[in-house]
Amino acid sequence: MEMSGKKVLITGSTDGVGRRVAERLAARGATVLVHGRNTTRAEELLAGIRGAGGKATFYPADLSVLDEVRALADAIEHDHERLDILINNAGIGTSGGGAGRQVSRDGHELRFAVNYLAGFLLTRRLLPLLRASGPARIVNVSSAGQQPIDFSDVMLTRGYSGVRAYCQSKLAQIMFTFDLAEELAGSGITANCLHPATYMDTTMVRQAGVAPLNTVDQGSDAILNLVTSTALEGRTGLYYDGQRPSRANAQAYDATARERLRILSLTLTGLA
Is residue 1 in some structural domain? Predict the structure, then answer.
């Protein structure tokens, strides 16, 4: 896909694989809307992109706070008349943010809030802008680490573990992607998701105490495939492992479970 003139929002793009995707898309002519929490890292990224002749703008927001997600959406809508691509990449790993169960300012289990609810709310708030820019693409950066959601204890008040919380939040992302793809069928907006690479050399992986197995370039290759591939034009509701089509956890294909998650998410984000 020709990226010149396209506008791309990448959450979590001041570090790790999101940063590499931002650099590569800017080099191909896209205007990149960088998101993160660290202003110093953002300024370094913007200086590098602009120094190479690219275009980028920084939008700070803490995605663990739903009001900041809303403010981010408002800022994007205010500043831009179009949004061609939304990449929901921001997230925290199994041990990010400290040990033990944590809750967001809104009272939600932290990984569910950051890895899933923030992207759900941001995407739904930006749908009018994406529709106005169609054809447009939504890419959700998930993980092969997936565990079914226990709807009797979504916030994991019993038997908590960071791994369980992370894997549940990542499956929720995939379920949202499939649900959204059905909702947007025929609209000109596609929604796909992927596991970019296993244990990339990122802050998230290092915090978990795991030796990296893959590079951020390998992960960014996989993300860029969903963002730019002409072969994926019009194709939606897909889950990829790297650059290969794959199958997610069985719950992702359960329409009843997806509906329960949708109703819950609309309620938790105030969109119901």
Answer: no
